[in-house]
Amino acid sequence: MLSSERICAFVIRKFWGDHLSISCGINYIFLIFLSEGFKLGTLLQITEWSEQVKILIVEDEPKMGEYLRQGLSEAGYVCDLVPNGTDGLHMALHGQYDLVILDVMLPGLNGWQVLQSLRDRGLQMPVLFLTARDHVEDRVKGLELGADDYLVKPFSFAELLARVRIILRRGHVNTESNMLRVADLELDLLRRRVSRNGKRVDLTAKEFGLLELLMRRHGEVLPRSLITSQVWDMNFDSDTNVIEVAMRRLRAKVDDDHPVKLIQTVRGMGYVLDVPEDH
Question: Is 15 inside a domain boundary?
Fold first, then answer.
């Protein structure tokens, strides 16, 4: 008989991979547990997987990469694997990952460069270096660049899994922080203050709410309908330019005095706050 963990991991990978709803997967697991006679307490443990946790693995050695991908997938995580730093940076910027596992010695951009680029763009997603570079100065460099952990090869998979779980728990706490940051733009939720490159930006209450939404979901194109429902708690007529006017005023305060423009219009789709890829 397969273990409950393997059944859960298989079913969740299957349903996510087929782009079906997670409720279908949970219902399917429920039927399996009933048919196999598992205890209800064991069934309830699958709620840990009710939210999709995505991990990006950047590893150029094929056997090691597949070993990591398979092991973490069986532990219930959704994993993507890329073999070089250039693709790794692109995926990390656009993939909405909860954790990046990053080698140092990579084709294209090395691991140091990938992490530096992420932090320069204001992305604070957790990063774990997994590398054969075992010198103390390498560990120090990785942590000073902003890595959350540093594990040296060869390693125990049980230890890696424990570190991953600790980082993810810590990352969940960090998302509840009172400060949002994207590049040199900062928004203090507690004090209701905004600054760009250290200079205070005065916003109205509505502009503050709009910027908060953009920063919380930075890198994601937000359609006009979502913005109106989240910030104005209503939907405007299609010929109303309230959103356009609000965005224009927000841009004037946040972007006009700075060379890097963070608030961008995606024609026909909506708006996004992100650092342009050429910066």
Answer: yes
Are residues 81 and 37 part of one domain?
Answer: no
C-alpha pair distances (Å), 166 with each of 162, 169, 173, 241, 252 = 6, 5, 11, 46, 41
Residue position matching structure tokens 């087929």: 18
List phi, psi (to 5°) of 105: -85, 95
Q: Do 113 and 85 touch, CB atoms closer than 8 A?
A: yes
**pLDDT tens track for 93-145:** 888 889 999 999 999 999 999 999 988 776 778 999 999 999 999 999 999 88
Q: Which CATH number does the domain housing residue 58 bear?
A: 3.40.50.2300
Among 174, 194, 222, give the residue marking a domain's end: 174
Stretch among 29-43, 116-130, 164-178 having the lowest mean pLDDT: 29-43
Residue 28 is part of which domain span? Answer: 1-49
Taken as a whole, the chain contains a residue count of 279
Determine the Cα–Cα distance for residues 235 and 223; give it in Å rounded to an integer: 12
Domain count, the chain: 3
Radius of gyration of the chain measured on its C-alpha atoms: 21
Bond from prior residue into 223 cis (ω within 30 degrees of 0): no
